[in-house]
Amino acid sequence: MEDEKLIAWIALGISILSFGTSIWSAFIGHRSYNHTKSVHETELELAFEKERSELLEIINTSRSILDKTRIEIGTLKAEFDSEHAKVQALLANYTNLFTEFLPRIEAGVTQATMLWNEVAEWNFKTGIKAMVSHQSRYRALIHEDQTVHESALYCIKVFRDKLDRAKLAVSMSKSITF
Fold it and tell me: DSSP string covering 32-79, please?
């Protein structure tokens, strides 16, 4: 009987130690799970920040392209405005570059600035859905803006050629009258 009690107490002690070990394992497992979860969350946040930074760079490049286009057209407009009235009259049909195209470019620069500000305010919690839904559309902007820039360069070249011809025509008409 004494041996049976001793064996029962030893079995109880082993059971208690086993239970304590199980509780300790559960605690360590829970801490490990929480750590893994926080590492995963941090990785997601870093990936989001990287994508957001790339998107901001794309938007900034797009804005830069449009701004460069705006400056080139603005420079041409200043040159055109400084020409003689007869030269301006000869090119009256070509001023849509200044009256229609330039305001659209300026609106594009403003829109790109607002878009940059919007994306800059995104954070991981609120911006992830917007990032996923708009990312491809924003990436397409740079290609569209590059096309606009190339079209503007072509229009500027054509306008400069016409401007040179108009100057020549006006100068020839002056030399004939003298």
Answer: HHHHHHHHHHHHHHHHHHHHHHHHHHHHHHHHHHHHHHHHHHHHHHHH
